[in-house]
Amino acid sequence: MRDELSLSARSMPKTQPFDDFAAEYDQWFEEHAAAYESELKAVRTALGDPGRCVEIGLGTGRFAAPLGIRLGVEPSPAAAKLAEERGIEVLEGVAESLPLDDAAFDSALMVTAICFVDDAELALREMHRVLRPGGRAVVGFIDGDSSLGCEYRQRAVQSRFYAAATFFSAAEVQKLLTLAGFTRIECWQTLFRPLGEVSREEEVRPGCGDGSFVVMRALKRKRG
User: Which of 48, 99, 103, 111 is 20–30 Å from 218 (CA)?
Assistant: First the structure.
């Protein structure tokens, strides 16, 4: 996902790079193990006990597998194949139209996928729909206002994966969650140094504005 290799056409469908270069995408997590472990720790902190959980925009399963999540939705067949090899059941679909029942899950996770959806508010409304009352949405993303977010935006035109991405700020994601019907939004952050300088797992702090990777947790209101 963080690959900066060249892309020949900005009109390429957003899922096509993940079909064509799924192995290269997956290799990023090996090459940046400390950053990956930092992100994973932040997601785990926000998610807590996931209960019955689904990951939306599953990718290759790099987050779902260690978190014990066994169901995901993913539009890229090549990425889904790698996730299935990690023991995850994958349903083909997009975030804006989830192939899932209403109020079926205790929690729903989306990690670095919100920047690739066509309609972020609709995707979060779909997360809201599939959660039970009191359920948790957990959304991890690169803060578009952070140093890393600015770097990715600047390099997007040369990137296989980020040419069509939208890098939302933390304030924008919080607003989208509110518009989708969520409440009690909390956030955590990590990756406080440039990516090339992250050589060991970094701490996770409450809040946002300092770390490049942010995780927000929001609740679906209970009935009554």
Answer: 99
